[in-house]
Design brief:
By secondary structure, the chain is mostly helical. The protein is built from seven helices and no strands.
Length: 178
């Protein structure tokens, strides 16, 4: 998927200097939405809020380059959340695996399963977003479509891993500083 990352980097690099200086991006619309949501709400409804605000508030934000840039910024925020949740969960599961081994348990190890799941998920995400891009037949909408795909799948995975950590009673994200 390095090819898609390279394409996104090139798109962002080619953005006009005026747009780069006037970019209006903040993750707050997304975190505010998540904070306001009740326990029964679907957090996926909030995904894209920051990118949408950025597109609406930035001159040229609805251009192909503008959309890719705004979506890319929110993707970076969700990717940080995903990596944080993955790291914390991996640490927790390694400790549990060690504890179970000391007890003589034959239960399957969780940390290696998490690692393999995450590797498979990355392949799934990349192939899914390659497919999404292909629907545009080489048109300029393929770039924003691929970035949007990465954004939504990454957010879903981040929320899933955060939920797994929260199941231990550890709130790893209060939606404000994540």
């Amino acid at each position: 998927m390095r090819k898609s990352s390279l394409v996104l980097s090139l798109i962002l690099t080619m953005a006009s200097p005026a747009m780069a200086q006037d970019m209006t991006y903040s993750f707050h619309p997304t975190t505010d939405c998540l904070s306001a949501m009740g326990e029964d709400g679907d957090p996926m409804r909030c995904v894209g809020s920051a990118a949408n605000y950025c597109m609406e508030a930035t001159e040229g934000g609805m251009s192909t380059v503008g959309m890719s840039s705004c979506l890319g910024h929110e993707l970076e925020d969700w990717d940080r959340r995903l990596n944080r949740a993955y790291g914390l969960l991996m640490t927790r599961l390694k400790a549990e695996d060690e504890e179970m081994a000391v007890l003589g348990s034959s239960a399957p190890k969780q940390a290696p399963a998490l690692k393999e799941m995450q590797r498979a998920w990355i392949t799934f995400r990349d192939r899914s977003c390659d497919y999404e891009r292909s629907k545009w037949g080489g048109g300029t909408g393929g770039g924003p479509a691929a970035v949007s795909c990465h954004l939504f799948l990454t957010a879903r995975q981040a929320l899933s891993l955060e939920s797994d950590m929260n199941g231990y009673g550890d709130t790893i994200c209060n939606h404000e500083g994540c």
